């Protein structure tokens, strides 16, 4: 009984340590704002909403080292831990080697080192069939094996910079297939960036992805989607579309349970809110709806974490 009580206390501590944030690429900044000012604006605004993590949007970081250090100082002063996307990981070597992709990856990892980012995230799938399990030119296992050399080298590059590398299930493979890729890569600093709803895009139950990838998860995208009737005849009769957290068919409560118990980086794990493929109300301002979506998501996750942490502590 004492051992079980200690386990519950450990889980409660991990739940309380988790950091809530957003995927910055989807958080709208004023249209006249210079690109290099967006990150600082987002950090301030989201910290005021209670966020303690932030994924910097793609392509908005300045090249100037002094400005990068200023962003780091601001985030540190507000208690916000940063996360960064490192595109090009699967082009650093191997059969898909690409010099420009390698340079993009090296640049992002260098920026992550300056910013003190603990984990950079990457992805293979580029939202098309050819970079997915449905590429008919090779079977799934061959496809996964072909990615190992690049991911392994990218992992070594990230390790040299002192950061972890997390691979998102990015509309390409199922969670169990991604687990196979990570096992074959076999590097301690390479794990998963679990997206809780992307399983829908490869016709996989997201709950299965969550169970498969929680033991590898270095970071997350907390996303919910609802299965709805397809209004257009001639298509598959049901489809999934984005919705507010807790309003769809992804069991986010169960996801947090599994992450707290099995993630190798459960302490301080980033729970980053990202919208799915949303159907915004055409009769309302879209930006207003997007701001509401994120604010409600932050409140939802904080309430869920509080409820679970208190429940773990109170369990006899």
TrEMBL record:
It comes from the Bacteria. Residues 44-294 form the Xylose isomerase-like TIM barrel domain. SUPFAM superfamilies: Xylose isomerase-like (SSF51658). This is Xylose isomerase-like TIM barrel. It comes from Paenibacillus konkukensis.
């Amino acid at each position: 009984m004492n051992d079980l009580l200690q386990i519950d206390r450990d889980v409660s501590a991990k739940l309380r340590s988790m950091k809530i944030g957003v995927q910055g690429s989807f958080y709208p900044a004023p249209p006249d704002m210079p690109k290099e000012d967006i990150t600082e604006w987002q950090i301030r605004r989201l910290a005021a909403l209670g966020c303690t993590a932030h994924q910097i949007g793609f392509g908005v970081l300045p090249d100037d080292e002094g400005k990068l250090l200023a962003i780091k100082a601001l985030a540190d002063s507000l208690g916000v831990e940063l996360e960064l996307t490192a595109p090009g990981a699967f082009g650093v070597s191997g059969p898909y080697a690409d010099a420009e992709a390698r340079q993009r990856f090296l640049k992002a990892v260098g920026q992550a080192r300056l910013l003190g980012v603990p984990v950079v995230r990457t992805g293979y799938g580029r939202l098309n069939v050819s970079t997915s399990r449905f590429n008919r030119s090779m079977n799934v296992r061959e496809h996964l094996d072909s990615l190992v050399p690049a991911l392994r080298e990218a992992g070594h590059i990230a390790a040299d910079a002192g950061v972890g590398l997390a691979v998102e299930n990015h509309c390409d493979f199922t969670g169990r297939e991604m687990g196979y890729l990570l096992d074959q890569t076999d590097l301690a600093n390479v794990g998963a960036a679990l997206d809780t709803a992307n399983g829908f895009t490869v016709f996989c139950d997201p709950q299965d992805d969550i169970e498969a990838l929680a033991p590898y998860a270095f970071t997350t995208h907390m996303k919910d989607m609802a299965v709805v009737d397809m209004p257009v005849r001639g298509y598959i009769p049901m489809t999934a579309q984005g919705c507010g957290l807790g309003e769809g068919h992804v069991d986010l409560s169960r996801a947090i349970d599994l992450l707290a118990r099995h993630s190798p980086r459960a302490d301080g794990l980033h729970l980053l809110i990202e919208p799915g493929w949303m159907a915004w109300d055409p009769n309302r301002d879209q930006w207003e709806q997007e701001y509401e979506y994120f604010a409600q998501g932050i409140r939802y996750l904080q309430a869920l974490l509080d409820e679970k942490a208190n429940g773990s502590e109170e369990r006899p």
